[in-house]
Design brief:
heterodimer, A: alpha+beta, 26 helices, B: 2 helices, elongated
């Protein structure tokens, strides 16, 4: 239990992130208190045990329960005996990241419809299995060995099972069909409801007049298969929805507001008004736009502008929402509220871009659009045809109902969701979260990939370039000081030096650097002026820090944002897939050119504003390209939403993760090409399934119209086609998505 | 054939039992956290250590 984070090593320990005071997020009803937290980093049984015992061990907490599937932790206690912040720090101390859920949003996310579908599925499955016992014995007797009274008993028993079950399990379809008809349109549920009603009605009629053929089993089976498809589809959507709520939770960060008497109260960011003053500590993100009033230091704007280098701020500097203070505390006067801040502007850009995306129609919807009119006209043609041929109305209606039953879209309803859930499940195991069901289809049709630079093609964090030029003593002394700071350059020094102890009595000079003692020597780590270096500025404009031990010479430490290890291979791989690769960055020209040259990109633009980024995406769309946008910053979010499909690394800012269709984990870029391959494979599977469903209907519908379909044939055809479609979705991928093989494929040139 | 009058109700009762168990498990939240349930079996929290 000593190591931080997942004890199985499945996930790295999360860095503690300042979420501020979580008191506003506690839900109180009477004496009972409840705090819901989104926990990231939990993967295994050890994580559950660690987190639940850490939170359960907080004085006063009665129950702590972690849902590993959704990553939600609910802690309950009675009365005001528990400071909710100790719950968050207990989780953080165990090595996981916790952020509070907005209680209203968490309640909205309750999956009542999913449970209704599951119950309906259970009832329909029960009815289908039991009525089949009765139907099979009737079919096996084939009218010869079974007396008419026994057959009637079987039919009445079937009716007693299926009629209540259909009334219960058919509700999701009936309700949706009724709403569609009320609105004057027809969806897929209209022919389904019609088929269930007619199959039941006709069977009751036949039972009453002791007819030989009833369709009770068909009605039950049809509902069962369709409900499986519905539930799979719903689970996909639910996962996307809870991913969105989770991301919102990570955004609801409390702010420290300074009151007029200089006391600090914790408020939700939404309650900050222009003119309010608030305090930012090191590592905290500005909740709204503002002007620095007191304090100086560095701020990380990379998520907003894409620029890697920390920017120094002093009283009078403007600070956009989303900027992270690297040193603190800084007092800021708000100039906008949460609704009018830069983040909110970007959110509006995202919204308008997403409306454009809704123009995309899923393959399944296009199939449904064809299906409804065709099936209904076939049924009418059957009635009309048989009447014209001189058959009685009973026979004509029987055959029309057989057409409706046998063409019922069981295979169609299973075709897409089964493939989507299997493919996204396989991707999820390799660390790629597909947030929307149709993202795979859209990925498959992408023709161009646009990358952001900072944080996407590069790691987004500076790395120490000249560790070799320092002596071990200098490196260790710098690292000992650096371990006390959150500044990205300090982190880079610590990364280069490896594990070790932090120096004690380190003092941080605002906007200057760190000073401390190692043994008897005073160590200074910081800017050129802070360390006391004379002479001209360095010839290049690299990021730099200086270190001086005692009276010795000052040494220069140089940093740069390192390109991701496999960036060049990943870009070549994408080209091999036939995609055009571009780079857009908000960073300055020189670092952009360096990265482009290193990766081998020839199409790139630098110093692009967020609005320009989404403008360029639109221009590409207009050229007829279908763009996959890969980016991680606030400045990428509108472009992510406007592109045909978008991916973002798991390290991305929350709003980018909300806007993107796919989130991938890890430090490599290989998942981009891998996900495109998976999307292409999934689309091929879906098309196979639809082709099969169409073929099936093309054979079955004429048979039914000709009056050759008996209840036995209907049952065989329906279950057979559903089975084929499901098995095709489950068919293994030939190992192409498997863990170790995946890396290999990513480096292979072409398929 | 009179045996059917006993056997059909028995079959239905057994099936109904299974259905009731399923409905109960949905209602009591056993499908809310399938991943967690799979892992919790490995926890030794019933042992004193």
């Amino acid at each position: 239990m000593s190591a931080a984070g997942c004890p199985s090593g499945l996930a790295p320990a999360e860095e503690a992130a300042g979420v501020g005071d979580v008191a506003p997020f506690v839900r109180a009803s009477g004496d009972a208190r409840e705090l819901a937290l989104k926990v990231t980093g939990a993967r295994c049984a050890g994580c559950i045990g660690k987190i639940e015992s850490a939170v359960g061990g907080v004085d006063g907490v009665e129950t702590a329960r972690l849902n590993l599937t959704t990553g939600r932790l609910v802690a309950r206690w009675t009365g005001d005996v528990v400071d909710p912040n100790t719950v968050v720090s207990a989780v953080a101390h165990a090595g996981y990241r916790a952020a509070p859920f907005d209680p209203e949003a968490a309640a909205r996310d309750d999956d009542a419809y999913g449970r209704l579908l599951l119950r309906c599925m259970g009832v329909a499955g029960f009815a289908a299995a039991n009525v089949m016992l009765l139907s099979v014995s009737v079919w096996a007797a084939a009218g010869s060995d079974m007396g008419e009274a026994t057959r009637a008993l079987m039919h009445w028993a079937s009716a007693a099972i299926v009629l209540p079950a259909a009334a219960y399990a058919g509700r999701p379809f009936f309700r949706s069909a009724f709403n569609a008809l009320k609105a004057g349109s027809a969806n897929m549920d209209v022919p389904i409801s019609l088929a269930v009603f007619l199959a039941c009605g006709l069977s009751v009629f036949e039972t009453l007049r002791h007819g030989p053929e009833v369709y009770f089993d068909a009605a039950a089976m049809l509902l069962f298969f369709l409900l499986i498809g519905r539930w799979l589809d719903h689970r996909l959507r639910q996962r996307a929805r809870s991913a969105a709520t989770d991301l919102l939770a990570l955004q609801t960060v409390a702010a420290r507001r300074l009151e007029t008497d200089d006391s600090v109260t914790s408020v939700s960011a939404r309650d900050l008004l222009p003119g309010d003053r608030f305090v930012l500590h090191a590592g905290e993100r500005a909740p709204v736009d503002g002007v620095v009033e007191a304090g100086a230091g560095d701020a990380d704007l990379s998520l907003v502008t894409g620029e890697t280098a920390p920017v120094s701020i002093r009283p009078g500097s403007t600070l956009h929402s989303g900027c992270v203070a690297l040193t603190g505390p800084i007092t800021v006067t708000a100039t906008a509220d949460a609704e009018t801040s830069l983040v909110a502007d970007l959110a509006r850009l995202i919204e308008s871009a997403e409306q454009g995306k809704s123009r995309y129609r899923q393959i399944a919807d296009r199939a449904a659009g064809l299906y409804v009119p065709v099936v209904h006209s076939l049924a009418f043609a059957t009635i009309a045809g048989w009447l014209l041929l001189g058959a009685g109305p009973r026979e004509a209606i029987m055959n029309a109902v057989a057409v409706l039953i046998i063409t019922c879209p069981c295979a169609l309803g299973l075709a897409a969701p089964a493939v989507q859930i299997v493919a996204s499940g396989r991707l999820f195991k390799t660390g790629v979260l597909v947030k929307t069901g149709d993202a795979l289809e859209r990925l498959a049709s992408a023709t161009a990939v646009v990358f952001d630079k900072t944080g996407t093609l590069t790691s987004g964090k500076p790395a120490l370039l000249n560790a070799g030029a320092l002596t071990a003593e200098e490196l260790n002394a710098s690292a000992a000081l650096a371990r006390t700071s959150r500044h990205p350059l300090s982190r880079a020094i610590v990364d280069a030096a490896g594990p070790g102890l932090a120096a004690e009595d380190v003092e941080e000079a605002s906007g200057g650097g760190l000073s401390g003692h190692i043994g008897d020597a005073t160590v200074l780590l910081g800017s050129r002026a802070f360390v006391g270096v004379d002479g001209p500025d360095a010839e290049d404009d690299s990021l730099e820090t200086w270190v001086r031990i005692g009276g010795g010479d000052a040494k220069r430490l140089v940093f740069a944002d390192a390109v991701r290890q496999d960036a060049r291979a990943a870009v070549n791989d994408l080209r091999a897939l036939g995609l055009r690769v571009l780079m857009l960055t908000g960073d300055r020209r020189a670092p952009a050119a360096r990265v482009a040259a290193e990766i081998g990109l020839d199409e790139w633009r630098s110093e692009v504003s967020p609005q320009e980024k989404s403008g360029i995406i639109e221009a590409l769309n207009a050229e007829g390209e279908r763009v996959l946008m890969v980016g991680d910053g606030l400045n990428d979010a509108p472009a992510l939403a406007g592109a045909a499909v978008s991916m973002t690394p798991g390290s991305a800012v929350d709003i980018a993760q909300t806007a993107a269709d796919v989130v991938y984990q890890g430090d490599r870029l290989a998942p981009v090409a891998r996900t495109i391959r998976a999307g292409r494979a999934a689309k091929a599977r879906m098309l196979q399934n639809f082709a099969f469903a169409a073929f099936y209907n093309a054979v079955a519908a004429p048979l039914a119209m000709a009056g050759h379909v008996t209840p036995l044939i209907a049952a065989l055809a329906m279950s057979g086609s559903s089975l084929v479609v499901t098995l095709n979705a489950l068919r293994p991928e030939g190992g192409r998505l498997a863990g170790p093989g995946a890396r290999q494929t990513a480096l292979q040139p072409a398929e | 054939m009179t045996g059917l009058l006993i056997l059909i109700p028995i079959a239905l009762a057994l099936g109904g039992l299974g259905l009731a168990a399923f409905l109960w498990s949905v209602r009591s939240g056993q499908f809310d956290d399938p991943d967690g349930a799979a892992h919790r079996i490995l926890l030794d929290d019933d042992l004193d250590d």
